[in-house]
C-alpha cells in the first residue's frame, strides 16, 4: 500500500522530470546541446553572444566602488570552502563504506560550465566559476550530510525547518516511538549501494 508521503514524493519526482524536460526544451531555443559532456553552441548563437559581451573596462566603470571593495571579502571564502570540500570528501570516503552508504558523486553537484558563455567578460566568467563551485559545493555537502542524517537519525523535527534535503520527507515522524526502529532500518536500506548485474 502506498503511503501519502510516497504518493507526494512520486508527484514531486514527476514534476522534477517535467522541469528537466522544460530545461531541455529551452536549451534548444538557445541553440546549444551537450555532446559527451561538452557544450556546443551553433555558430549563429556564438556570434550573437559575442555581440552582447560588455567589455571589462565598461563593466568596471559601471560598478559601484563599494561592490569592488567587497570582492576580497567574497573571494576570501574560497579558503574555508576548499577546506570544507576536502574534509567532507575525506569523511565520505572513510565513513560511507563503513556505514554502507551509497557515496555522493561530487561531479553531480559542482558544475563549472558558465565560463563557456561568450557574452560574459573575463571577470563575469571568474565570478561564475566561483559561484558554480561554492553553490555546487554547498549542495554536495548538504547531500553528504543528508545521507549521514538519514543513516543515524532519520527523525523529522517537531517544528518546520527552512530547507530540507532529499531524504527528509521519508524520515520517521517526530514522536513516533513505535515506528522508529523500522523507519531507521528502512532509511539505512535506502542508502545502501545499489547492486548491479
Query: What is the number of strand segments?
Result: 2
Q: Report the portion of residues in β strands.
A: under 5%
Quaternary state of this entry equals single chain
Main sheet specs? 2 strands, antiparallel
What keyword list fits this structure?
197 residues; single chain; two-stranded antiparallel sheet; 2 strands; globular
Summarize this entry quickly.
The protein is mainly alpha-helical. The protein has a domain at 64-191.
Can you tell me about this structure?
With 197 residues, the chain is mainly alpha-helical. It has a domain at 64-191. 62% of the residues lie in helices and 4% in strands. The chain has seven helices and two strands, in the order αββαααααα. It has helices at residues 4-29, 43-52, 56-61, 65-76, 78-99, 122-152, 177-191, and strands spanning 32-35, 38-41. It has a two-stranded antiparallel sheet. Strand 1 and strand 2 form a beta hairpin. The two termini are 28 Å apart. The model has no long low-confidence stretch (mean pLDDT 91).
List the helices and strands and how they pair.
Blueprint: H1 4-29, E1 32-35, E2 38-41, H2 43-52, H3 56-61, H4 65-76, H5 78-99, H6 122-152, H7 177-191
Antiparallel strand pairs: 1-2
Amino acid at each position: 500500500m502506498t503511503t501519502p508521503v510516497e504518493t507526494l514524493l512520486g508527484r514531486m519526482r514527476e514534476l522534477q522530470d517535467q522541469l528537466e524536460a522544460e530545461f531541455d526544451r529551452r536549451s534548444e531555443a538557445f541553440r546549444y546541446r551537450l555532446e559527451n559532456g561538452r557544450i556546443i553552441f551553433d555558430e549563429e548563437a556564438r556570434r550573437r553572444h559575442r555581440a552582447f559581451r560588455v567589455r571589462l573596462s565598461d563593466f568596471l566603470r559601471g560598478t559601484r566602488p563599494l561592490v569592488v571593495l567587497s570582492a576580497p571579502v567574497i573571494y576570501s571564502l574560497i579558503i574555508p570552502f576548499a577546506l570544507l570540500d576536502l574534509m567532507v570528501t575525506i569523511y565520505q570516503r572513510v565513513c560511507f563504506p563503513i556505514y554502507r552508504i551509497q557515496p555522493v558523486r561530487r561531479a553531480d553537484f559542482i558544475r563549472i560550465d558558465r565560463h563557456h558563455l561568450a557574452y560574459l567578460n573575463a571577470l563575469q566568467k571568474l565570478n561564475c566559476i566561483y559561484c558554480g563551485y561554492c553553490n555546487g559545493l554547498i549542495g554536495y555537502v548538504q547531500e553528504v550530510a543528508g545521507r549521514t542524517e538519514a543513516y543515524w537519525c532519520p527523525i523529522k523535527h517537531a517544528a518546520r525547518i527552512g530547507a530540507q534535503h532529499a531524504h527528509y520527507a521519508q524520515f520517521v515522524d517526530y514522536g513516533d516511538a513505535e515506528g522508529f526502529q523500522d523507519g531507521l532500518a528502512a532509511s539505512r536500506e535506502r542508502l545502501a549501494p545499489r547492486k548491479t548485474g
